[in-house]
Amino acid sequence: MNNIETINSDVIIVGAGNAAFSAAVAARESGLSVLMLEKTPEKFMGGNSALTIHMRFVYHSFDDLLPLIKFPDKDQDLDTFKIKINELKNIVSSYTESNYLNDINKVTENRSDKVLSQELVYNSLSTIRWMNKLGHFWKPTFENPTSANVVSFDGKGYGLINRWKNIAIQKGVKIIYECPVMDLINKNNQISGVVVNYKSQNIKLFSKNVIMACGSFESNSDMRAKYLGENWRNIKLRGVPHNTGEGLEMAINNGAIPYDDWSTCHASPQDYNRPDFDLPGENKSGDYWSRYAYPFSVLINQKGDRFIDEGETWRGLTYAKTGKAILEQKNQIAYQLFDSKHRKAGVLENYKNPTFYTANSLNDLAKEIKIMDINKFLINIENFNQNISSDKYNPSLLDGKSISNIIPKRSNWALPLDKGPFEAYPVIAGMTFCYGGLKTSIDGEVLDKNGDIIKGFFAVGEMLGGLWYKNYPSGGGMMAGAVFGKKAGEKAAINSSKI
Ligand SMILES: Cc1cc2nc3c(=O)[nH]c(=O)nc-3n(C[C@H](O)[C@H](O)[C@H](O)COP(=O)(O)OP(=O)(O)OC[C@H]3O[C@@H](n4cnc5c(N)ncnc54)[C@H](O)[C@@H]3O)c2cc1C
Questions:
Q1: Region at 361 (left for phi over 0; alpha for psi -120 to 50; beta for the rest)
Q2: Per-residue pLDDT tens for 76-109?
Q3: Of 73, 144, 206, 246, whose CA is between 20 and 30 Å from 334?
């Protein structure tokens, strides 16, 4: 494709992640011609979306989930699979609109935009069904499913993105890679195209609608330092290095306004030796480096002190804020401690080839990981061990096995750390994505400072602001990308018919 300026399209979509594809396919289904412009080479397309696991959506019973599940082809595997599905059916009940909204409100301290969060929640199941009809499939989570993660993408995020690409191409969407968008074309306060850098040339591409879905500023160290604080400058990324915030800057330069929350972000506990970033198709699996057994651990800093309620609630409602808590500790590191009882209970099963230390006594373990004040550390652990409630330990439930008379308190899954061998996993904060975005309508139309829609201009996915504040419920980002991406694609078609 040498003469890209000759391509006519009713809508230009910036980026090729989940939100972009949702918008592209919805616009195409609504009769528009669609051009997607992606910064990376084709082999690294898909953005952070390609590294994900699941979407959080409403379902009223297992019957809502069953049509999404891809069954194995082989007869032999099918029989075992059906047995497991029946077992799963017996333990899964529902995840209702009010469950979802309660979770959002709880984790964001009631700061999530009420209109947007309701739009997300009430459109989640219908959007999932739309995706399923298009050819997307999910696989069941047989081991310890939580109500909001009973199914995850077949082939994880990479599988999802490759399906999106095939669906889009089949429907006639054009995609150009290695084609970063550098600027917007603004005629009389209406966005009417973009400037791209393609094969080292700046080229103007015109269109009635531009839908931006090119991520937030998580991969830009200067912007991280500016908006999140200096200690975020050198943090390792969990995701791609391509979401460098220029989409947000271009939009703001053209009248868009920033919308919450630009001062906090999603960051989670990661293996100390994780790479600086991941690339679609290259990472070993979406969560290969994630260290998400911390709710069961005793989590300590280099001084030997606990600093959060590790077992506050389900991991999916706390992990996104736990990275920040780790970043704030001495040397920006923490250690997840376990003993042989945890190993026996199976909570460490997802740790693949981790960095870890082991010792037969807590004293030796503390020396291994260079705890600064070993005596204080041993007293802390003794105090923890002696005050645990008598509730029954159960890592599959919010078991209430807690400690109330220590600071920070411990709400669930408290087991005494007293039976070696002991294990310590060093963890750092890994940046996932920024919550800061733009103010939009419920259809992703970008608003200006007067609250008026900037004509022809949409922002979706990570670029749509207002949903997340301080914390985040797992699976919310991808669901928001699909819901608002689809709505933006459809609204672009409605707007085009009026022009
Ligand atoms: C490791 C990891 C795991 C995650 N797991 C989950 C999960 O299981 N569930 C969940 O809901 N969320 C998860 N998230 C968060 C989730 O990835 C995001 O919320 C979501 O992907 C955002 O989708 P998006 O389409 O907005 O952005 P992306 O998928 O990041 O897509 C943005 C695209 O824009 C391109 N781009 C950037 N700048 C330009 C430009 N100037 N011109 C053209 N193209 C450009 C990028 O190359 C990229 O392809 C995870 C994130 C990470 C990093």
A1: beta
A2: 789 899 999 999 999 899 999 999 999 999 999 9
A3: 144
Indicate if ligand 1 lies below 6 Å from the C-beta of 320: no
Residue with tokens 């989409």: 247
How many A from CA of 432 to the centre of ligand 1? 9
Ligand 1 atom nearest to CA at 476: 11
Phi, psi for residue 148 in degrees, rounded to 5 = -95, 5
Question: What's the whole-model pTM score?
Answer: 0.96
CA–CA distances in Å: residue 479 to residues 83, 119, 424, 486: 29, 11, 34, 11
Does ligand 1 have an atom closer than 6 angstroms to the CB of 54? yes
pLDDT of amino acid 283: 59
pLDDT computed for residue 285 by the predictor: 60
Which residue's CA is the closest to the ligand 1 atom numbered 11? Answer: 475
Q: Report which of 391, 292, 399 is spatially closest to residue 349, judged by C-alpha positions.
A: 292
**pLDDT at residue 287, rounded to an integer:** 78
Domain locations along the chain: 4-264+435-498, 268-429
Please name the fold of domain 4-264+435-498.
FAD/NAD(P)-binding domain (3.50.50)
In 3D space, the residue among 436, 470, 474, 469 whose CA is nearest the CA of residue 325 turns out to be 470
Which residue out of 152, 165, 478, 479 has the highest number of ligand 1 atoms within 8 Å of its CB and is therefore the one to mutate?
478
Pairing of strands 298-301, 334-338: antiparallel
Is the pLDDT reported for residue 498 higher than 80? no
Query: What is the rounded distance in angstroms from the CA atom of residue 180 to the CA atom of residue 39?
Result: 4
CATH of domain 268-429: 3.90.700.10
| Cα distances (Å, whole numbers) of residue 40 to 136, 161, 214, 239, 280 | 24, 14, 11, 14, 11
